[in-house]
Design brief:
The protein is globular and about 40 Å long. It has an eight-stranded mixed beta sheet. The two termini are about 15 Å apart. The protein has one domain: Aminopeptidase (3-Layer(aba) Sandwich), CATH 3.40.630.30. α1 crosses α3. It has about 190 residues and is an alpha+beta fold. It contains five helices and eight strands.
Length: about 190
């Protein structure tokens, strides 16, 4: 495994790129301020854009770490995306996808994702997850990737299944999110099973 950090990824409809401080208003408006989006997440709904600015001010410096993977999901249909590090006038993100945790001594990434509800049920998150799985297997060289969801949020599991991940069981009362202590369904994919 060779860590190369968060790299720009393009798919048919999406650009996955690093977050920038200028993304705070879009992140706040598109998903972080929405109780419906954050219902099954581990962080509270942002009450003000200053909260989002604070989160991004923590995330952006972490890109200096090659083991940090956190992408903004941008739709190509929103216009051309600048290739450089500055995104003052380019399209704004509609969600994010990241390696939320590293398990077993840093060898197994756990993927987490969320997206504004305007873009739900359009295959966008499946497209993003598929691209991230390919990147982590092919570019970073991981052997196994996992993802979990609250069992009360089956649509998240649908995204995982659509990307070829296999159900790996339910861990009872193993997670805590904005609904309290919850059962977590785990999915996994091995490089050899792709």
């Amino acid at each position: 495994m060779t860590h190369i950090g968060t790299q720009r990824i393009e798919t048919e409809r999406l650009i996955l790129r690093r977050f920038e401080l200028s993304d705070a208003p879009a992140m706040f408006a598109n998903w972080a301020s929405d109780d419906e989006v954050t219902k099954y997440l581990t962080w509270p709904t942002h009450t003000d854009v200053s909260v989002t600015e604070g989160i991004l001010s923590q995330w952006v410096p972490q890109y200096a770490d090659n083991a940090y993977y956190n992408w903004a999901i941008v739709l190509k249909e929103h216009g051309p995306e600048p290739v450089g590090n500055i995104n003052v006038h380019g399209p704004k993100p509609v969600g994010n996808i990241s390696v939320a945790h590293w398990h077993e001594g840093g060898g197994i990434p756990e993927i987490g994702y969320c997206m504004g509800k305007r873009w739900w049920h359009q295959g966008i998150m499946s497209e993003a997850l598929g691209a991230v799985l390919d990147f982590l297997f092919d570019q970073v060289g991981v052997e196994r990737i996992v993802a979990e969801h609250d069992t009360n949020n089956p649509h998240s599991g649908g995204v995982m299944r659509k990307c070829g991940m296999s159900f790996d069981g339910v861990r009872e009362k193993a997670g805590k999110n904005n609904q309290g202590v919850v059962d977590m369904a785990r999915y996994a994919l091995k490089a050899s099973d792709r």
